[in-house]
Amino acid sequence: MKRENSLYINDTIVALATASGVGAIAVIRLSGKEAITIADSVFKPHSGKSLLEAPSHTVHLGTLESKDQVIDECLATIFKGTKSYTGEPVVEFSCHGSNYIVEEVIKLCLAKGARLADAGEFTKRAFLNGKLALNQAEAVADLIASDSKASHQVALQQMRGGFTSEIEGLRQELLNFTSLIELELDFSEEDVEFADRTQFKTLLSTIKTIVLSLLQSFSVGNVLKNGIPVAIVGKPNAGKSTLLNALLNEERAIVSDIAGTTRDTIEETLHIGGIAFRFIDTAGIRDTQDQIEAIGVQKAKEKIEKASIVLYLFDVKDSSAQEIISFVKENYREGTKFVLLHNKTDLSTESNITPFDNEILQSLQGYTDTLLRISAKEGNNILALKDFLSHYAQSLNNTGKATIITNIRHYEALHNTLQSIERIEQGIQLQLSGDLLAIDIREALYHLGSITGTVSNDEVLGNIFSRFCIGK
Ligand code: GDP
């Protein structure tokens, strides 16, 4: 399906597709109606045959030449017709990775009529030529940016289709109903109902269920993409900075004996079991009169609010069971995992869970069931903590949901769809006339369509594709 927005698609574009700088190979990509013609005018295959005659999806060894001056010996891969990434003729020159060669080849293509590609323009063309839905195109950028197994998997699943067909299917069904309801408007004098309201309600409730489940998957999707935020909290001197260092295996946070030295928050990313965790060290939580420290304490509370996992560290010398219990109960939030860490166990002779630990666990039933005895300083049980984090993250990942959304634009569009659907439901309840219902249905269709790009505008597209690098 070719999309309408194809004003400048007649141009042939060129750009370096690999990272700039010296490398073994540099790939220069040409895409557009004239791609093969332009390539043919600068590239001489060793076979002596013209690229114009060569079949699609073939690779040719030859020389890139400018006015009989050989620039490089390289490979040219050609894609003819619409069977290419962009959905139009494409040539990729795999040259030797020298900045000079790249510049000369691009200049040569420009001289033959190509123009420099904008950021993301190859992918934008793939979208405009109907090769990718908009959300799939966005996933291409996520895939390039992915730096952990989890973010890679989510992006790959989306790029290969993800929830595209599901959304498009729902939109199509909704569209069918709109047509029927709009048909009723033509017969408004005659009080007919072409659109079966019971079937319509069932469809709305199906859409609502799917949209809600996608919305819920956002929190999981977002943490898998950006890293799971973990807040490390506890009173001053509980050992938070020492724990962060132990987790990261290096001295990055400042460790000191003076209570209240970690005033600001420090964030470090660590990959455990293919999942990124963002560890947030915070100023000690306690009531304080000190102005600067008060800001730090406030920040700690904010970090807890943003965290998916809270590591609450305590030192038995310095905390009563009651204090710990009250802290967890006060700061508990549904959906956030609280992990109690009994620190400095190297100073104790006990190696198993103590009555103190048991008392806390008993009182916090329903809030948390996880308590680990660690020594941040000696590194005891840090591996067990990492293991726990990794398993917990896996359990988030295995929510049984086939599709996960990670993109805030999709989240907003789904949220708007949900609101429109709820208004339609109310409208049916209130027996509103078809023309009024049609307004909300059109809105729901618009929001659903904006996810996959069935409806789009230049501003939205510009916003999305400008975030890509040039050459993608
Ligand atoms: P924070 O204020 O919570 O960040 O605490 P720090 O990490 O700065 O630690 C405060 C003090 O407790 C430092 O002297 C650490 O060396 C010490 N400490 C931290 N963890 C342990 C531990 O597991 N065992 C012992 N014995 N001391 C620790």
From TrEMBL:
<keyword id="KW-0378">Hydrolase</keyword>
<dbReference type="GO" id="GO:0042802">
    <property type="term" value="F:identical protein binding"/>
</dbReference>
<feature type="binding site">
    <location>
        <position position="256"/>
    </location>
    <ligand>
        <name>K(+)</name>
    </ligand>
</feature>
<feature type="binding site">
    <location>
        <position position="262"/>
    </location>
    <ligand>
        <name>Mg(2+)</name>
    </ligand>
</feature>
<dbReference type="GO" id="GO:0030488">
    <property type="term" value="P:tRNA methylation"/>
</dbReference>
<dbReference type="GO" id="GO:0005525">
    <property type="term" value="F:GTP binding"/>
</dbReference>
<dbReference type="InterPro" id="IPR027368">
    <property type="entry name" value="MnmE_dom2"/>
</dbReference>
<dbReference type="GO" id="GO:0005829">
    <property type="term" value="C:cytosol"/>
</dbReference>
<dbReference type="Pfam" id="PF01926">
    <property type="entry name" value="MMR_HSR1"/>
</dbReference>
<feature type="binding site">
    <location>
        <position position="29"/>
    </location>
    <ligand>
        <name>(6S)-5-formyl-5,6,7,8-tetrahydrofolate</name>
    </ligand>
</feature>
<feature type="binding site">
    <location>
        <position position="131"/>
    </location>
    <ligand>
        <name>(6S)-5-formyl-5,6,7,8-tetrahydrofolate</name>
    </ligand>
</feature>
<feature type="transmembrane region" description="Helical">
    <location>
        <begin position="7"/>
        <end position="28"/>
    </location>
</feature>
<keyword id="KW-0547">Nucleotide-binding</keyword>
<keyword id="KW-0460">Magnesium</keyword>
<dbReference type="GO" id="GO:0002098">
    <property type="term" value="P:tRNA wobble uridine modification"/>
</dbReference>
<dbReference type="InterPro" id="IPR027417">
    <property type="entry name" value="P-loop_NTPase"/>
</dbReference>
<feature type="binding site">
    <location>
        <position position="241"/>
    </location>
    <ligand>
        <name>Mg(2+)</name>
    </ligand>
</feature>
<dbReference type="InterPro" id="IPR006073">
    <property type="entry name" value="GTP-bd"/>
</dbReference>
<keyword id="KW-0812">Transmembrane</keyword>
<feature type="binding site">
    <location>
        <position position="258"/>
    </location>
    <ligand>
        <name>K(+)</name>
    </ligand>
</feature>
<protein>
    <recommendedName>
        <fullName>tRNA modification GTPase MnmE</fullName>
        <ecNumber>3.6.-.-</ecNumber>
    </recommendedName>
</protein>
<keyword id="KW-0630">Potassium</keyword>
<keyword id="KW-0472">Membrane</keyword>
<feature type="binding site">
    <location>
        <begin position="256"/>
        <end position="262"/>
    </location>
    <ligand>
        <name>GTP</name>
    </ligand>
</feature>
<feature type="binding site">
    <location>
        <begin position="281"/>
        <end position="284"/>
    </location>
    <ligand>
        <name>GTP</name>
    </ligand>
</feature>
<dbReference type="InterPro" id="IPR018948">
    <property type="entry name" value="GTP-bd_TrmE_N"/>
</dbReference>
<feature type="binding site">
    <location>
        <position position="261"/>
    </location>
    <ligand>
        <name>K(+)</name>
    </ligand>
</feature>
<keyword id="KW-0963">Cytoplasm</keyword>
<dbReference type="InterPro" id="IPR027266">
    <property type="entry name" value="TrmE/GcvT-like"/>
</dbReference>
<comment type="function">
    <text>Exhibits a very high intrinsic GTPase hydrolysis rate. Involved in the addition of a carboxymethylaminomethyl (cmnm) group at the wobble position (U34) of certain tRNAs, forming tRNA-cmnm(5)s(2)U34.</text>
</comment>
<dbReference type="GO" id="GO:0046872">
    <property type="term" value="F:metal ion binding"/>
</dbReference>
<dbReference type="GO" id="GO:0003924">
    <property type="term" value="F:GTPase activity"/>
</dbReference>
<feature type="binding site">
    <location>
        <begin position="237"/>
        <end position="242"/>
    </location>
    <ligand>
        <name>GTP</name>
    </ligand>
</feature>
<comment type="similarity">
    <text>Belongs to the TRAFAC class TrmE-Era-EngA-EngB-Septin-like GTPase superfamily. TrmE GTPase family.</text>
</comment>
<dbReference type="InterPro" id="IPR025867">
    <property type="entry name" value="MnmE_helical"/>
</dbReference>
<dbReference type="InterPro" id="IPR031168">
    <property type="entry name" value="G_TrmE"/>
</dbReference>
<keyword id="KW-0819">tRNA processing</keyword>
<feature type="binding site">
    <location>
        <position position="472"/>
    </location>
    <ligand>
        <name>(6S)-5-formyl-5,6,7,8-tetrahydrofolate</name>
    </ligand>
</feature>
<keyword id="KW-0342">GTP-binding</keyword>
<keyword id="KW-1133">Transmembrane helix</keyword>
<feature type="binding site">
    <location>
        <position position="92"/>
    </location>
    <ligand>
        <name>(6S)-5-formyl-5,6,7,8-tetrahydrofolate</name>
    </ligand>
</feature>
<comment type="subunit">
    <text>Homodimer. Heterotetramer of two MnmE and two MnmG subunits.</text>
</comment>
